[in-house]
Amino acid sequence: MNTPQNVLSINQNYAERYGFHDPEDYFLKAPKGIDHELVEMISLKKGEPQWMRDVRHKALDVFFEKPMPRWGNSRLLGEIDFDNIHYYIKPKGEQANNWDDVHDDIKRTFDRLGVPEAERKFLAGVTAQYESEVVYHSIREDLEQQGVLFCDMDSGLRLHPEIVKRYFGTIIPTRDNKFAALNTAAWSGGSFIYVPKNIRVDIPLQAYFRINAENMGQFERTLIIADEGSSVHYIEGCTAPTYSSDSLHSAVVELVAMKGAHIRYTTIQNWSTNVLNLVTKRAHAYEDAVVEWVDGNLGSKLTMKYPSIVLKGERAHGEVLSIAFAGHGQHQDAGAKMVHAAPNTTSRIVSKSISKDDGRSSYRGLVKMARGSHGCRTSVECDALLIGEHARSDTYPTMDIAEADVHVEHEARVSKVGEEQLFYLQCRGLDADKARLMIVNGFIEPFVKELPMEYAVELNRLIELEMEGSVG
Amino acid sequence: MADTDRKPDATMSIPDEAKVGEVSRLLGESGDLRDARLSAYRSLAVATLPDRVQHLWRFTNPAHLLPGDPAAAAAAAWPVAVAAGAAAAARIVLRAGTAPVVNVSPEAAAAGLAVTPIVSSADLAAHAGDEEGAAFELFRGLNEALWNCGVRIIAPRGAVLGAPIHVRVQAGAGAVLPRIVVEVGEGAEVTLVEEHTGGRLGTRVVGRTELVAAAAARLHHVLVQRWEDGINGHLTARARVGREADLLTTFASLGGDRAKVELLTDLAGEGARSEMMGIAFGTGNQRFDHHTRHRHLACNTWSNIDFKAVADGSSRSSYTGLIRIEEKARASEAYQENRNLLLSSAGRADSIPELEILNEDVSCSHGATVAPVDPAQVFYLQSRGLAPGEAVRLVVQGFLAKAIDRLPDGTREAVAGLVDSRLEGLRGRAA
User: Fold this and answer.
1) Domain locations in chain A?
2) How far is A442 from chain B (nearest CA, A)?
3) Of B312, B342, B328, B278, which Cα lies nearest the Cα of B421?
4) What is the pLDDT along chain A (472 residues), one digit of tens a residue?
5) Among the partner residues B53, B55, B372, nearest to A404 by beta-carbon distance
6) What crossing angle do the helices spanning B388-405 and B375-383 adopt, rounded to 10°?
7) Same domain, B340 and B393
8) Is the CB of residue B103 less than 8 Å from the CB of residue B95?
9) Residues of A whose CB is below 8 A from B366
């Protein structure tokens, strides 16, 4: 770590740490492409009720009918070949709740990724998803006894159909966008969480998503409901092997925070750079509820993800804190949406991005104040740091304000590491590398301090690797 | 899309090719100029209106801005005389279907200022075409093919004009497509006031102004839009700023029903600078849609935008502003600020300030706010004995003052007067 190198990038050791892949040995690998037959097959295999099967079929029609988005990175979007994707792969073995029962190959994978170790140390519950299915799941007993439901989405549908039916697709309707429709048609896996009234889950619940096969499409579906006065923190992480052809990850995540509830949803997205990550995430926050998206985007070739919060109840608060890192060949098109639909609601968006080499990071956001949203406040802050001559940063915020009695602020800054800051630190005896690292660490500090300790340490380490030798 | 809360305007279609010949005949043009119009018309992607998914057209339906019949504007019967008052280097009036009425002051003529009608395609040569190699954007292309009044203004190298050039575009009934071409030579100093007035219900204006500031030139472009009610219009001003040249753009958008204004600035030469300050004040059901685009194409370029909008009644102001710093434009700085003041609960403001930064050696920031009049300021003024309505008036005046102050003499008083007449209504209103 002390030998400065000329060309450094974040995830420079990705291949060795996450980029490996297991031999492909599946219980079922659906042929490439998607049609009604495949949707029927997925639904049958899962033994789903008729209503869900109908939802899937309708969604597939919507997917076929909707055009591709005409905004964002249309070049990379245009490269997606929907006929060259495996939409469903079921790994060997049944879902286990004891780590020892997980199929050996898969267990080795997650061992290598450090998932079980993390669970022992600091998590209240874990699911691990491999390709289309959740292969391991556990939750602390005391939480279970308090009535906290935490399982994969398929089990959620089987065991708690009344809750799933009530909320599924209500936050993000099928017609929301092409990729949400695709997810609704082909979804498999993901997490289902229900936290009963006034229960506070103090330790985070975690899900880890892993793609192993080439040309895989992973479509997990997550639904989190925090009942009145409850609180929960959910963390997800994801990696995939490095292949020469692309995989598609297209999740739909729906959150409901009832009156006075608090949900924090943390994502550390570290897909390999052959994954297109097109995700729809939205939350509804009722009276006095708080929803926070903490969103880190480090990996993937293209990410298009704009976590949204609809503030539906008076005094609800929404927060998005995000950091994007775009290295060589990457485009992080991330942002946030806040819709103020009730009086006296407040929100804050802090977005930090670092573009390095020929990486491109874009902030794309929306703040909407509906008519009648009296006394609302929002502030949006975007900071971008550029490292390298070919780095690119874009800011595309949208403010749509239909009420006079509100306060809306947006600020963005783009700069390179300041010469005078470097000079100051060097005067204090730091070498150029250390000084630069310190500045970058300071830049992302507001984000890192919101992460659980283990993630913060990991992120700092990644940044340290990335910054090494970037002077000269 | 965004303006469903409003009853639909009559939409018009894109004029057909025969109109090109008719307009050309109306103006008694040479065949050369007619051919230039035809080729512009044919290079338009005529059949399609702009894609409304793009931010540029998110807030305005392009069909509402299409001109009707640009050849129908028969030469107005009444003659217009312009006197060259002491306060102007030149006074010019443009009306659809007629030659420009021009009066240049002796001092300006002595300094070499030339104001001429556009008579050949060579007069447009420096400005022909749109973006490098790209097809015309619809409205710029429509003007290129169908402009029905125009003038060319040339300030030669080193000409320093002590007073502003005043161009008034007088809209009548029907379609007005003014074309203004301005060339400011090396080291020359020019103030150009472009004022859009007149019109009546159903008038459509598609205006295009092309400005070129050569090396070390100083150009102040003033764009005042004070149409009557019932007019929809689309105005484009495109400026190319040369090496070490300085462009100051000040604008005030006040009139019309729907007005879309595009201010496109290319910082083309090393060390070029552009400063832009503007205001919009909407009342009733007015719709303003402003777009600015600053492209930094060379090293050491600098730009700053300060746009302030006030929305009263159920009016709406939309702003999209793009700063793009190209990879080769090293050591550049760009700043952009858009502040919106909402005076009524039905007033509305949208703001999309965008940045595209393609190299690291820049300093760039933007800010946007939307808020009502600050109650603390009103309270302070009330505690000094002002009535609530009076206090609000003063706060709004203060909000706009910085931009209005930058307008040249004469124009400043006129714009301040128009703003004040809009503020009259606030006098009786409670805070």
Assistant:
1) 19-419, 420-472
2) 19
3) B312
4) 333 333 334 566 777 777 778 877 788 888 899 999 999 999 999 999 999 999 999 999 999 999 998 888 888 999 999 999 999 998 887 788 777 787 787 777 777 777 666 666 666 677 788 888 887 778 878 888 999 999 999 999 999 999 999 999 999 999 999 999 999 999 999 999 999 999 999 888 888 888 888 888 999 999 999 999 999 999 888 777 777 788 999 999 999 999 999 999 998 888 888 899 999 999 999 999 999 999 989 889 999 999 999 999 999 999 999 989 898 899 999 999 999 999 999 999 999 999 988 999 999 999 999 988 999 999 999 999 998 888 999 999 988 888 888 999 998 888 888 788 888 999 999 888 888 888 888 888 888 777 776 667 666 666 665 555 554 3
5) B372
6) 110
7) no
8) no
9) 395, 410-412
Residue among B271, B275, B249 nearest B262 (CA): B249
Residue B255 and residue B283 in contact, taking contact as beta carbons nearer than 8 Å: no
* Rounded CA separation A101/A98 (Å): 6
Best of A392, A401, A411, A436 to mutate (most B CBs within 10 Å, chain B) = A401
A74 in reach of chain B (CB within 8 A):
no
Closest approach of A378 to chain B, Cα-based (Å)? 10
**How far is the C-alpha of B408 from the C-alpha of B413, rounded, in Å?**
9
Same-domain pairing of B189 and B92:
yes
What single-letter amino acid sits at B225?
Q
d(CA A53, CA B152): 68
Please tell me the distance from the alpha carbon of residue A461 to that of residue A91, in angstroms, as a whole number: 32
**B27 and B145, same domain (yes or no):** yes
* Domain finish residue from B372, B389, B417: B372
Strand partners, B232: B204, B258
Between CA A72 and CA A396 the distance in angstroms is: 10
ipTM: 0.72
Q: Shortest Cα distance from A375 to chain B (angstroms)?
A: 10
Domains of chain B: total:
2
Subunit contact A395:B345, Cβ cutoff 8 A: no
Which amino acid belongs to residue B279?
Answer: I
Are B118 and B245 contained in the same domain? yes
- Per CB distance under 8 Å, which residues of B are interface residues toward A? 2, 51, 53-55, 327, 340, 342-372
Kind plus residue range of the DSSP H or E element containing A15? helix A14-17
Name beta bridge partners: A471.
none
Under a CB-based contact definition with an 8 Å cutoff, are residues B188 and B160 in contact?
Answer: yes
B156 close to B214: Cβ distance less than 8 angstroms: no
State the pTM of this model. Answer: 0.82
Residue holding tokens 């619940």? A205
- CA distance readout (Å), A47 to A41, A71, A470: 10, 38, 54
Q: Do B372 and A402 touch (CB under 8 A)?
A: no
- What is chain A's Cα-based Rg? 22
Give the count of alpha carbons within 13 A of B397, CB side only.
Answer: 17
Distance CA A322, CA A336 (A): 9
The answer to whether residues B202 and B317 belong to one domain is yes
Chain A residues near residue B291 by CB distance under 8 angstroms: none
- In the numeric block, which tokens belong to residue B13? 């279609």
Phi, psi of B430 (to 5 degrees): -70, 155
What is the per-residue pLDDT for A11? Answer: 64
